[in-house]
């Protein structure tokens, strides 16, 4: 299945050092982050927050596309302007999260499989009509005692491949997101092994289901020691492990790897991405960029706090974080400059 529309969208999304802003938190996740900042967990506050993000002046200098949640793609700002229209006017391509969340995998305690395939063809057609040109589906892989199982990786890879094929049929670029969680005390080597296994199984499944690899965006986690591991590695060690792992498991036909931030601080996520692009400049077959949520949004959310008076300052912070991520894509991020 080859569709020139897919390549076109990918080219536009990632031109001029750009990456993606993920602002597709489910209502539960968004509300949790609001609660931690004393912000009321209402549909109006979520609308105001997303409206503020989308209308940040100059955001399009570093952001080529924004991933929205179903609630947001249908929402107008307080002033009555559709949020999707604000993005389109700014030249930021709207995308949409289409999975229905990771649910417990029957028979495999502690593991999850992502749901949402039923009726997906029809939902994709509706989103396409609304203006979405790319989509996202996230599979979750947990590292733990005896985890992940091959069954869990295979179940998630199969769902990701079925989703990707449906997207491509509709002319929507699928973001394929196999997230290996950084929760736990596992080592960098363990993260490497699990990421490699996950990616190899994923690409076998994408191939089997005839997904055009030139028409996908891979959104993985970086190869990192667990957040509770006693040994935390240097920036260069993480960059080396991540690049070696991906070179051994991701086909060169894939045009773009856009990393999630996964709970890393914005500074660390940017430093890792920058090191990958600086050290391996000219040696990687893919564009290596970002599709961050927390590593771009979090400081802006903390500044906003749900107050209209803080909007300008919060947007300034969001603008800067997006700029830093874009610098990292080019291998030019420096914490010192920050
Ligand atoms: P983080 O960058 O906060 O990990 O979020 C990215 C994302 O889209 C998770 O699915």
Q: Any overview of this molecule?
A:
- The chain has 338 residues and is an alpha/beta fold.
- It is built from 12 helices and 10 strands.
- The strands form 2 sheets. Strands 1-2-3-6-7-8-9-10 form an 8-stranded parallel barrel, surrounded by 8 helices.
- Helix 6 (120-130) packs across helix 7 (150-170), helix 10 (266-279) runs antiparallel to helix 11 (294-304) and helix 10 packs parallel to helix 12 (311-329).
- The site of 1,3-dihydroxyacetonephosphate (13P) has 10 residues, from helix 11.
Radius of gyration based on Cα positions: 19 Å
Largest sheet: 8 strands, parallel, barrel
**Kindly, what is the distance between the CA atoms of the first and last residues, rounded to a whole number of angstroms?**
44 Å
Query: How much helix is in the residues?
Result: 40-55%
Low-confidence stretches: none
SSE succession:
HEHHEHHEEEHEHEHEHEHEHH
User: Biggest sheet, strands in spatial order?
Assistant: 1-2-3-6-7-8-9-10
Question: Strand content of the residues, in percent?
Answer: 5-15%
List the ions, cofactors and other small molecules found in this model: 1,3-dihydroxyacetonephosphate
- Number of helical segments? 12
Shape: globular
Tell me how many strands there are. Answer: 10
| Overall mean confidence score, pLDDT | 98
């Amino acid at each position: 299945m080859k569709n020139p529309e897919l390549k076109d969208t990918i080219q536009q999304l990632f031109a001029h050092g750009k990456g993606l802003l993920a602002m597709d938190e489910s209502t539960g996740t968004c509300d949790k982050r609001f609660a931690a900042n004393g912000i009321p967990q209402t549909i109006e506050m979520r609308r105001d927050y997303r409206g503020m993000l989308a209308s940040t002046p100059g955001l399009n200098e570093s952001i080529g596309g924004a991933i929205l949640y179903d609630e947001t793609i249908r929402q107008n700002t307080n002033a009555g302007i559709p949020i999707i229209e604000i993005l389109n006017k700014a030249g930021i391509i709207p995308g949409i999260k289409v999975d229905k969340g990771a649910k417990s995998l029957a028979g495999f305690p502690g593991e999850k499989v992502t749901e949402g395939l039923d009726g997906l063809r029809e939902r994709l057609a509706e989103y396409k009509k609304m203006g979405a040109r790319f989509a996202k589906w996230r599979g979750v892989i947990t590292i733990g005692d005896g985890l992940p199982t091959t069954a869990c990786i295979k179940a998630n890879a199969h769902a990701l491949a079925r989703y990707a094929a449906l997207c491509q049929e509709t002319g929507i670029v699928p973001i394929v997101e196999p997230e290996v969680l950084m929760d736990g005390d596992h080592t960098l080597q363990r993260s490497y092994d699990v990421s490699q296994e996950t990616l190899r199984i994923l690409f076998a499944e994408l191939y089997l289901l005839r997904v055009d690899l030139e028409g996908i965006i891979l959104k993985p986690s970086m190869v990192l020691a667990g957040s509770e591991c006693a040994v935390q590695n240097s920036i260069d060690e993480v960059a080396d492990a991540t690049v070696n792992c991906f070179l051994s498991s991701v086909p060169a036909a894939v045009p773009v790897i856009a990393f999630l931030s996964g709970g890393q601080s914005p500074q660390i996520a940017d430093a890792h991405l920058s090191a990958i692009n600086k050290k391996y400049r000219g040696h990687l077959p893919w564009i290596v960029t970002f599709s961050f949520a927390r590593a771009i949004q979090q400081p802006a959310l903390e500044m906003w706090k749900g107050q209209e008076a803080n909007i300008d300052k919060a947007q300034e912070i969001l603008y800067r974080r997006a700029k830093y991520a874009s610098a990292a894509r080019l291998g030019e991020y420096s914490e010192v400059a920050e």
